[in-house]
Structure formats: structure tokens, C-alpha cells
Amino acid sequence: MIKETVAQTRVRMGKALEDLRHALAGVRTGRASAALFEHVKVDYYGTPTPLNQVATLGVPEPTLVTIQPWDPTLLPVIDKAIRASDLGLNPANDGKLLRVPIPPLTEERRKELVKHLHKLLEDHRTGIRNIRRDANEELKKLMKEKKISEDDEKRGLEEIQKLTDEFSGKLDGQGKAKEKEILEIR
């Protein structure tokens, strides 16, 4: 039963780590990336649709993203969606293709992005701690129901804490790498 609880906890913490990876991909750095546009939704015939489901995104240069919609009538809609997003980008429409230049980040914008990054990290750390709390409560419940002994509970709690430390370290490592990438001036 303890192994089962620990395994479930590991899976849930792994999902939290994967969610952070996904969130970090959308945080802008000075380099062009198609992942920047993952959260941009386009009004596709009345339905908010992710940009990557209505267009092909390409990165021909480190400072340029090209967006070619499958339906050319969507160009103005995509343009509007990108301008309305919090990315601060201005696409250029040539009638067939949107070119989105990625300008270098200002010092002020870098600091804002680092603050946003720290908020993301703290949210995910809180998630990890909540998962730990749930697992600890599960172990305590098992002990109260006399399904495990006090020693087993103590070992289980220690294992859960080791998992928490391991995943918190991984979160911090990803955060530090992303912060370095944001602050790096090319």
C-alpha cells in the first residue's frame, strides 16, 4: 500500500514537472520559437482554436517566426490574435504569410519575464507541496485504519519527503536554466 501511494505521488509530481516544462516553453526569450505561440487562440469560424491547428509555424532565422495559415482568409484574424496576446509582437502580413520578428528583449522586459518565471515556479512548488500533503494524509489514514504500522508510515513519509525534495530540485533546475536563457544578451 505504501509503494502504491509513493508511485501515485511520483506520477503526480512528474505531471507537475511536465506542466512546468510546458509553461516555460511559452515564456519568451530573445530567441524565436514556435512554442511562443502555443497559448495564442484564433477565432476560427466562431471557435477559439490554437494557432498551431490552423497554420504552419516555422522558424527560418533566430529572430523570425513565419506563420502560414492553411486558409488564407485567416491571415487578418491570426494577425489580430497575435497583437492581442501578451507577447508584445507585431506581425507583418504579406498576403500569404505572416512574418513575426522577435525583437531583442529590453532590460525592463527581461526583469518582467524573470518575475513571471518566479511566479510560475512558485505555483508549481506549491503544487508539489500539495501533492506531498495529499500523500502524507493518505499514509496517516492507512495507519489510523490499522492497514500499516507506525514504522511503515514513518518510512512512507520519509520516502514522500525524498520525492518532494527530488522534484523541487528539478523544478529549481529548470527555473534557473530558463532564467539564464532570459537574462542572456545576444
Keyword list:
2 domains; two-stranded antiparallel sheet; Gyrase A, domain 2; Topoisomerase I, Chain A, domain 4; alpha+beta; 57% helix; elongated; four-stranded antiparallel β-sheet; 186 residues; 15% strand
Topology record:
Layout: H1 2-25, E1 41-44, E2 47-50, E3 55-61, E4 64-69, H2 75-84, E5 92-93, E6 98-101, H3 107-144, H4 150-183
Antiparallel strand pairs: 1-2, 3-4, 4-6, 5-6
Largest beta-sheet characterization: 4 strands, antiparallel
Helix content: 55-70%
The computed structural class is: alpha+beta
The separation of the N and C termini measures 52 Å
The CATH class label of the largest domain is Mainly Alpha
Strand content: 5-15%
Mean pLDDT: 88
Instruction: Give the beta-strand count.
Output: 6
Instruction: Please tally the helical runs, counting DSSP H or I stretches of 4 or more residues.
Output: 4
Note the overall shape: elongated
Structure in words:
Strand 3 (55-61) and strand 4 form a beta hairpin. The protein contains four helices and six strands, in the order αββββαββαα. It is α+β, with helices and mostly antiparallel strands. The N and C termini lie far apart (52 Å). The strands form two sheets. It has a four-stranded antiparallel sheet, with helices on one face. A two-stranded antiparallel sheet has the order 1-2. The mean pLDDT is 88.
